[in-house]
## 1
Amino acid sequence: MIDRYCRPEMKELWNEESKYAYWAQVEKAHLLTLIERKQAPENIIPAFESALKAKTIEDFLKKEQETGHDVIAFISEIASEMKDFGHFLHKG
């Protein structure tokens, strides 16, 4: 967000930490839907949560410098930590 256009409440909602937390909620909901549809194994959720805890904002920002895209950086970092389950993220 551009500072001059932001109210303090908006800055709090869209700081880097919050942004990634919201993205994580979306990805987890997506994974749960895949599980419900029998398109992903149930043990993918612990793998996702573990991968999320292993990564930092700095990891995402560093990857973003390489990729030039914030969402791709986030997904790539989490997926790489999830190993065999990583291909389920952001699928479809």
## 2
Amino acid sequence: LASLGLADGVVPNAFAATEAPGTFALTSTGTAGRTYQMTIAASQLAGMVNHNISGMTFRLNNASTANWPPVAANFASWDIYMGQGVAPSAMSNTFAANFLGPVTQVRSGALSFAAGSFTAGGSGSTPNAFGPMITFNTSYLYTGGDLALEMRFSQQLGATTQSPFDAVAATDTANGWGTLFAGRWTSSAAGVTGNNGNFLVTNFQSAPVPEPATMAVLGLGALSMLRRRRK
């Protein structure tokens, strides 16, 4: 990623390279699908200010003994929304109330996780590798402040086992739940309200926005190359 100008930002920061103490089964075979929302304090996102966030991914909890999913897990829709959010300490059970101002839909459409694409093998404090990137259709420019992110997705088809992802339990305030980050979820893709949810260890893919001076230099370089080709 670094060679492409992309950066990884793991939230919670404390578990970037260390196994989190909890787990969360994000996906569901329930016919109504699910809604999962997270709020993240600005302090956890300091390395991504003025970055375009273009994707996100999760990892298996290292109690998992086998790769997931055992066969492809398919979703007819997986929509993601981002925007300025309330502080995690102020997160409400009402999803809409946790966004402050405009909300940007960064992803829509179907999603599929190939068989075995989330790998097991971590143990002790060593976490598993992050799985496949959920790439956004539209990147989100993060300029600072607390952030809210919401996923609404349909019933999981194909694989019948749920995703045992690495997470921080909603009761684990000592590790930052409720101050540095928080989560809510409900068993419906059309849900309006939800209950406390464990917070997924999430790896965001982002790239810095070029400074105006850099853009000008790049533009001059491209013009110079064009002129040389015409000679």
